[in-house]
Amino acid sequence: MELTEKSRKWFVATLLLGTFTMSISQSSLSTAYPTFMRYFNLPASTVAWLTTGFMLIMSVVMPLSPWLMDNFKFKPLYLTLLVNFVVGTLIVIFAPNFPIMMVGRLMEGFSVGVLFPSYQSIILEITPQNKRGSVMGTVGLVMGSALAVGPIISGVILQVMNWQAIFAFFLVVLSAVFILALKTVVSPLKLKSTNFDFVSVFMSLGIIGLLYFINEISHMTSGSYLNWIILGVSMILLYLFVRRQLKMPEPLLRLDILKIGNFDLGVALTSLSYMSLITVTIIMPLYYQQVLRMTPFWSGMALVPAAALLSWLNRRSGQLADRIGFKPVITIGFGLFIVGWGMLLLLSGLKSVWVAIICSMIIEAGNAFAMMPATTLGANSLTNELIPHGSSIIATFRQILGSTAIVLATVILGNGNFNAVFATFLVMEIAAMGLALMIKDTTAERVAEAR
Fold first, then answer.
1. 356-391: string of b/e by CB count within 10 Å (b at 16+)?
2. Are 88 and 106 in contact (CB under 8 A)?
3. What is the dihedral of CA 223, 224, 226, 231, to 10 degrees?
4. What is the C-alpha separation between 282 and 275, in angstroms, rounded?
5. Nearest CA to 103 among 44, 57, 35, 41?
6. Membrane-spanning residues where (predicted)?
7. Which end of the chain is more exposed for a tag (fewer CB within 10 A), N or C?
8. What is the pLDDT of residues 275-322, one digit of tens each?
């Protein structure tokens, strides 16, 4: 289906507004944990499942995205995901107890898990390759900003209203998105009916087990045998899942595309960039509160400058990638990561809030130059029919490694060893720079030819 420039912009804007709102729900509850603990009279470890369960269900449904896009028109699929999220949000708002609230959160997580790879695939396929950098820069603005501003929005709302108001905010915005989507969203892709592989779906449940184990590492004791059994079973299921995808003529997920040059680097670099972004949004509020003795509200507000810079830079970094190529832009991104983590490590002894804010801004600026340009680099190495599989693989890896980063940072942090966290992620991003230098940048060659 051919779209005019105006209709394409409205289409993309509607997708991004819905995705932005859903993305906020992923990170917004961390500041509300104490409120939930008092309201339901539960410990923090139980309340944390509002986020953990959300992320688990997200991760396990991401591999289903290519099959859903092949077999269902995108417009009804998108509208259904919006309705499912809204219903889940209503359940959360009126939940009489915590288990019912979890049901609503899992419904929200399902919608986000399917939507994340789907909307990126659609945007990539309807955008000319020479404009993908700037468009995906806007996508990065949505993803990165939502992750960063989620805790800020919930913190501000909780200052004046109850916790239900956080979810009422999602409800109002997504109801408006649904109405807008009725007029602006279309189904631009041709359907190709494929069989639903229940066996692969069952095997993919190993993702849940793996993420569960990762999230439980910091709570494990010497007698946590059940967790090790879960890890063992999960790894077996994932091994069988990978082997089945590589052998089937029509797999649920085309894992063989990881052999394609630049796509493999795109997956790795996107994930490594996301690991730094999600870590800085989790660790820095703790640093502000525990080391600089700031209140939760002001520790959240201290994230605003970095989030604002990330938002401002994302589209500009994409435009720059379209002009000069992805390799130099991604290299700049990981260079900024190295500078930001290095400064935190060297200057944290000053205990200055302004130094910490500047370092956070440098790290999030690095994400603007690295994450979505790396995603676009990977997508550009694929044919259009493989893009849904590529987007699903990138989103799944990013989610798993993002969860791993949170646990890694939490375990290393212990009772306040922030310097060890800063050093760990500095080393990780130095290694990532080595991968960035391996990119074969065809965009740069195309730009040179055009000149």
1. bbbbbbbbbbbbbbbbbbbbbbbbbbbeeebbbbbb
2. yes
3. -130
4. 11
5. 57
6. 42-64, 76-96, 135-157, 163-182, 194-213, 225-242, 263-288, 294-313, 325-347, 353-372, 393-414, 420-439
7. C
8. 998 888 878 888 888 899 887 678 778 888 988 888 888 878 888 888
